[in-house]
Design goal:
The protein has 769 residues and is of the alpha+beta class. The protein has a seven-stranded antiparallel sheet. It starts with a helix and ends with a helix. 37% of the residues lie in helices and 24% in strands. Strand 28 and strand 29 form a beta hairpin. The chain is built from 23 helices and 32 strands. Helix 12 packs across helix 13 and helix 14 (544-560) packs antiparallel against helix 15 (564-586).
Length: 769
Amino acid sequence: MPKTARERLAQILSDVEADGADSAMLRLPGSVLALEVDGVGPVQVPIRAAQAKQLMAAGRPAGYGRGAQTLNDTSVRDTWEIAPDRVSLGGPSWQACLDAALEQFGEELGLPEGTWLTAGLHSMLVYGKGQFFLPHQDSEKHAEMVATLVVMLPSVHTGGELVVDDSGSEQVYLGSRDDLVLVAFYADRRHEVRPVRSGYRVSLTFNLLLNRPDGTPETGGRAAGAASCIKEHFETRAVSPYGGADLGVPLRLAFLLDHEYTEGGLAAGLLKGADAHRVAVLQDAARQAGCESMLALAEIKETWDVLPDEYAGPGSWYGADGSYFDGEEAPDDDFEGGFDPDADDSEGGAHQLNSLIEGEISLGWWIGTDGSGAETIQLPLGDYEVCMVTPTESITPYETEFEGYMGNYGNTLDRWYRRAAMVMWPREKAFAARAEAGSAWAMQTLLDRIDAGELEGARADAASLKPFWTNLAVDVFAPALQVAAALEDAAMAHMVAAPFRLQLLTADHAPLLAALAKAYGDQWTLELVGHWHSPNRSARLDLSSWIVESLLPLCQKQHQCGAGPVSDGLAELAWESVRSGLEAAIGHKHPGRRREYLGDLGEPLARTLEAASGELGAAIAEFLQPLGGAAVELLVPVLRALRLPPTPAVLAIANNCRERLSLLAGQPARTADDWSIAWTGCGCGLCDRLAGFLSAPTEHTHEWPLATPGRQHVHQQIDASGLPLRHATRRKGRPYTLVLEKTDELFRHEDEMLRKAQADFAWLMETFG
């Protein structure tokens, strides 16, 4: 079967090597370095126990970073650290030896030709017996940082090996009694310091910064072949491997790099090893193929089927190897949790990858290859859009999660990775390719084109958004409304402004809504707002929080902008939402829950009344008039929540509430011998008998032989209605007996409700007269 363009491109780039490794080591005589520490004085090598203890006393326990936090946990990192400003390095030949070592490391790590490294001291570390640092990864502390240098000072000790993970294989570096052992490795390589078994291990750590002249590495003759593959990729329709569905012509091509990068490192163009050379080839090839390109950060998740333990050979474990960010480095680095490779099955221990079940790749941030246009994005990639030389599964994941056999599927392992990528697309499709990332960039580009008088071109670009213009970030909302108003095309404007939720709308957007109403009319704008809350856009979300926080200031601002009809429409939409909640709450049989639900609607209804026109306010007051006794449970919270002077509708509601409260507050208290409870069930014979017992003023208990289905029905009715009854089953005889007993809660509740009605009535008279 012929190879695809992506496969041939990967083959071309697989030959682009940097002739370098991910780590390198060299030795220098211990005498070349003169070392002095504040509070300790000159440090003699090889370092002996007495002086190592002095260094420990001068230091502090080293922490590690986890996000923005600095943590101290000796089960993760157990060592002593001395800050760099207390350490002095010297010696007649030290700097010359260091410069020569850095030049050699640059060559061995395969850094681009013409670049060079400089070193900045980061810390001094002292490990005693049993001390260690679990597998971790050094963050890039400076924009120019690409690697870490560890200088192990001469001392007599065993253990304390520095182990660097080189894409799954271990490079182990030991200290020396007489020599300085210098180890440099890329900052994204996971590494650990194994426990010291005897003696003391003392090291210096440096940040290695990449310096480079202007220009890009030489690409040789590979760019032309790569350009041919790129052109073919964008001219060939992709086919799904599952069923052969036509996926159309790809819009982009993402080449995954081998190393991890931070935003700062990628923005500075500090590419490592073969990545630098391959990106140089791709940049040249993209230009030849008429494509634009960006550098991006990718998040990858793979779910694998794994074989049981009996299939796993020695050393076949894999995972995030403990994955603690920060290295022999400062405690301000980022920590990434992982798992112990010696863990049991529940932690994802020894298993062998069998087959890939599914994989997800998404881009979360990108920047132009020239350092411009940095942007947070959200862009999933299909397999047919991705190319790589190094398979993701051969890279160490930063996190794993194992799930054993569950009965309907086998053992699975989820693995998460971070990789960088170079993303390309044809120049003529640049707008759609960038816009699909859900970025505000697309909206600003359209506005710029419109401002430049290129309205037709802006409409054509806007039309290209339609296939993917969904699930947009919040920061796109306002620009999208601006663009919609400026397009002067009602259908196109609706497409651009439609994929948002009503809850995003605030008073700040009032001028934008007014501009839409001016451009396309009030009815068009109200239909757009209704679409933002329409039931066919998945389930409607509760508007209560939006009504309380945003409705009134939004409507007030709409009136100021001359868009009164839009304001009225927003208030009507809010009332529709509140009324739906009222109808559901009033019909609730449980009195306690009904009061709770109605009380929760008090403030949303108050804000709706304040935003409503006179006509809508009158309609709301009319709706509330016949609600019965439950109305008080709603109306008092509404009236207490009002902030603006009362309108005629509010006064009508207050009068309605006053009449009902007057009746409630004037009722006599229940007498001590009255146990009657008014209740209506579902109308069945069982509920009729229960209602008869409840309504009897002198009956306190009732024993009722009843089969299981009947007992279950009665239990459910009592619980659903919140009746003040104890109800239990006496399991003797056949059928069992249902024992019902009225409780004192009947009296306590009515006393409480009477006192509340009296207090509410007094407040209402004082407030509304």
